[in-house]
């Protein structure tokens, strides 16, 4: 044993997800120790506004004791149980009923997993199992969109329309990416919004015909893209693509991991954008981030087919040890009660106009090409040249610079490519919204000055 080696740093054993591992070795991580309302505190005692609710999920902030109490009560009653072999924790069955009752379109049943990624994998396995049971084993291809984010399991990554998935030699064959429905960035010179939409619909139709409708298991879409940079679809998008999917009998999966439970201003993103999905995936806000949990909701028609398919294979051979965890479900029931019955969604409706108006006022800033968003989510897209929308070179890491400068000023926002994004907790007050955007203003001015220098 080497007795003179220096004691390893206390954080050096921690392997970080989605982080620059090289620069972390030099700079070290930010170590967070406490939360209070919309704020988190690091170990030096410095306080930050959490402008992204953590990872979109801590919508009730970081000190809601009602959720701690719900967890504690469930921990004392039935602290752990599963839902395999026809058993179910009573709390978990109640949550399934509650979710069916508030679903944006009629839904029959809910399957629980631990993360958004697992929920997406679950859906793909359901689709593939149905295809095999119904004598169409070739129905395996999946439609997604460039810019989409669907998670980090092998299928979650494969459905994600971002360049980094190449790091894993993904996606596999059979995942087909359609154009990102972002008019500002993807619309061609002289193309109207309506023409852009027509082009997307034609692309979908041609893709289905080219691949063969009977080889496609389903299409997955976020009602509004989140980690792609908060990208609301071009107006009329879902109303236009859904008839095409229906005509070809291709089920639509709404990935509501971010948009579920109020983020877009309606309870569901599907309501905000007119999505009529066959399956819905929810996570994140379902427990306000206080417990890992996700849900897959299936329509009655889908449920009947799944039941028939499970006869074929003897059972539904899929599930996670801690899916439907009773503590997560107790927290989720309390979150829903707080959102729907204790005025949080009403409060949210009251603050959204202030949030959107401050956000959109940055469209006039020399660095900002587009200020976009819906509900309590938004993005500022940074450009090097406003008329041509030319972005800064990627090695400039302009989003990163802005997020770092904001961090120094006590605000956590997230850089995503050329944009920075906002998704604060629903409990934010109007004056906290002003404080947040005042920091953004000072930050953008500081970064602009630095660039000019
Ligand atoms: N789908 C969407 C739309 C997401 O935003 C995310 C996470 N940001 C996921 C799936 C994956 O969820 P998780 O990280 O819980 O696996």
Automatic annotation (TrEMBL):
Keywords from the named record: Aminotransferase, Pyridoxal phosphate, Transferase
Any GO molecular function: adenosylmethionine-8-amino-7-oxononanoate transaminase activity
TM regions (residue ranges): none
Swiss-Prot/TrEMBL cofactor(s): pyridoxal 5'-phosphate
PANTHER family for the chain: ADENOSYLMETHIONINE-8-AMINO-7-OXONONANOATE AMINOTRANSFERASE (PTHR42684:SF3)
Protein family according to the UniProt entry: Belongs to the class-III pyridoxal-phosphate-dependent aminotransferase family.
Name the UniProt record assigns to this protein: Adenosylmethionine-8-amino-7-oxononanoate aminotransferase
């Amino acid at each position: 044993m080497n007795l003179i080696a220096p004691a390893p740093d206390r954080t050096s054993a921690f392997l970080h997800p989605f982080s620059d591992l090289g620069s972390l070795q030099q700079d070290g991580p930010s170590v967070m120790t406490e939360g209070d309302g919309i704020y988190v505190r690091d170990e030096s005692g410095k306080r930050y506004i959490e402008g992204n609710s953590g990872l979109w999920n801590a919508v009730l902030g970081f000190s809601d004791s009602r959720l701690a109490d719900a967890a504690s009560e469930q921990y004392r009653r039935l602290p752990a149980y599963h839902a395999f072999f026809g058993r179910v924790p009573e709390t978990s069955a109640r949550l399934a009923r509650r979710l069916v009752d508030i679903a944006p379109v009629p839904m029959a049943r809910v399957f629980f997993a631990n993360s958004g990624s697992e929920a997406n994998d679950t859906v793909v396995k359901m689709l593939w199992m149905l295809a095999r049971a119904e004598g169409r084993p070739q129905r395996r291809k999946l439609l997604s969109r460039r810019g989409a984010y669907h998670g980090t399991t092998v299928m979650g990554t494969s459905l994600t329309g971002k360049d980094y998935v190449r790091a894993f030699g993904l996606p596999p064959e059979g995942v087909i990416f359609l154009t990102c429905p972002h008019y500002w960035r993807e619309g061609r010179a002289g193309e109207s919004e309506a023409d852009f939409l027509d082009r997307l619909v034609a692309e979908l139709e041609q893709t289905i015909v080219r691949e063969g409708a009977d080889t496609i298991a389903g299409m997955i879409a976020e009602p509004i893209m989140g980690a792609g940079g908060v990208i609301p679809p071009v107006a009329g998008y879902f109303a236009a693509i859904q008839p095409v999917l229906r005509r070809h009998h291709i089920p639509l999966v709404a990935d509501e991991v971010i948009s579920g439970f109020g983020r877009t201003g309606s309870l569901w993103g599907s309501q905000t954008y007119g999505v009529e999905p066959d399956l819905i995936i929810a996570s994140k806000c379902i427990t306000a981030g206080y417990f890992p949990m996700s849900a897959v909701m299936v329509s009655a028609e889908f449920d009947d087919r799944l039941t028939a398919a499970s006869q074929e294979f003897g059972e539904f051979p899929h599930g996670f040890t801690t899916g439907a965890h009773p503590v997560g479900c107790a927290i989720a029931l309390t979150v829903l009660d707080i959102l729907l019955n204790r005025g949080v969604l009403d409060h949210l409706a009251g603050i959204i106009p202030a949030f959107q108006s401050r956000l959109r006022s940055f469209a006039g800033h020399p660095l900002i090409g587009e200020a976009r968003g819906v509900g309590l989510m938004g993005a500022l897209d940074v450009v090097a040249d406003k008329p041509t929308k030319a972005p800064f070179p990627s090695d400039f890491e302009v989003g990163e610079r802005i997020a770092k400068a904001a961090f120094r000023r006590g605000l956590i926002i997230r850089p995503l490519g050329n944009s920075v994004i906002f998704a604060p907790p629903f409990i934010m007050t109007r004056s906290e919204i002003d404080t947040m955007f005042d920091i953004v203003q000072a930050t953008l001015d500081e970064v602009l000055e630095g660039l000019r220098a």
